[in-house]
Amino acid sequence: MLQKLLDETMGTLHKVTERSPSGLHMHETGTVFQIGGGIARVRGLPGVTSEELVRFPGNVMGIATNILPNEVGIILLGNNERLAAGAEVRRTAREVDTPVGEGLLGRVIDATGRVLDNGKALRVIQRWPVERPAPAIIDRSPVSEPLETGIKAIDALIPIGRGQRELIVGDRQTGKTSVAVDTIINQRDKNVICIYCAIGQRGSAVARVVDTLRKNEAMENTIVVVASDADPAGLRFITPYAATSMAEYFMEQGREVLIVYDDLTRHARTYRELSLLLRRPPGREAYPGDIFYIHSRLLERATHLRDELGGGSLTALPIIETQAQDISAYIPTNLISITDGQVYLSPTLFHKGMLPAIDVGKSVSRVGGKTQYPAFRSVAGDLRLSYSQFEELETFARFATRLDKDTRATIEHGRRVREILKQGEHHPLRASEQMVVLKAVNAGLFDRLPLEHVEEAETAIQQRVISELPELCEQMDAGETLDKPQWQKVLDVAADVLSGFRREEQE
Ligand code: ATP
Ligand code: MG
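Above: the input record for the complex with magnesium ion. Below: its predicted structure, written as tokens.
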């Protein structure tokens, strides 16, 4: 009996469709016996392989996932409204793939290549599998170049390198998407290709991001890949993998690519939903046992390739939403351990108006300083340490009534630094713009300026330095170091601007 079944199976394997001598097409098929919640359970399909694409009537596709002795669990990639028990399923002998190529730039699409921006149909030349192996260790090279976000608090204190994976983590409505979108905007003139992958968000939220990118002229080099909360769970599940294949296409040509996954909490929940419906055993927080693996195999694909392989890079910024600031929950800890650092956004800072609400103490970049340009490092150097010391001191100082002169000076200086680290949305700054103000605040030039004038003074300094010392600014943007006399020139201009503010004050 078993032998007969085996023979039958082996016979159909690799011959999914075959032409019989009479000229008829033969297909290997199965029959749906239960359907719902984005999952179909099927009998038949004896030769189906794991992760194989199967086709339902009405061209609805599915992925064969749970292959058991007498049934196959299939994740649907399309709507199942018109499907019912008894429907026929066919094997395709293909794996799930996604369009890749230059033609996708500037477009809003889904993982299957469906156009969502009312534009022309895609001109697709190639399709790549959504699941591809991560580059081998030997093919990777160290992360050495900065990926400039244009956000002072990140570039100075938690620098990100090209090829790094940096998690953006925080409660709901703390500015996670804004940090990612601002980083994309900052790449518009840097020749970095960006992919914004929206998973399980409301359509209106995605539309807002697309609109922001368009308004800031950042759409040209960007692909937006969307699976909204209205899409089938299967599509939501494969979308980040598909977006990564699109990114790899460019990386393998030696290009620099940035990918944002917004967000992986929803991705994990989607997978939990599918796994429970597939009757896989639930584990911690009801997530299945392989929940770590679905994210690690995704993020392992981000890297910096060796020069012999073109030297391209793929930087990943996955986003995770925490609940009640609990970064030790299951999914956040998993992702923290997979990535090379995290930018932590705090609701407390957000409500205090300290925007972007980056909690410097809880954020790290494990590649960090090595990728910063030397000039930037010399400016940002010990800012991180002195800033954390200030925060500690400030907390204590709240209880003390009389403070000595030095402590008061340290606190006043720290407050100026904090004011400088504030930054508006969608207003990324060039390296030179960041460096000149950081240099000035480090030199203590702001210390006597009232806090409410700091922002205004900052802009004034940036404008004056750029108009008076354009070559030095170019040098800074290119990552070259400045010598002492050159820095002095910058400081002189800054001091001059600030003395103007003080004079105003006295009048
Ligand atoms: P969600 O959990 O809903 O995805 P989120 O954490 O992604 O939220 P955002 O949507 O990025 O948060 O931002 C929340 C709100 O804060 C938005 O209205 C945004 O305009 C505002 N915001 C974010 N960053 C800044 C900033 N630096 N300056 C001013 N406003 C900001
Ligand atoms: Mg968001």
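Notes for the reader.
The mean pLDDT is 90.
The chain has three domains: 2-94, 98-372, 378-506.
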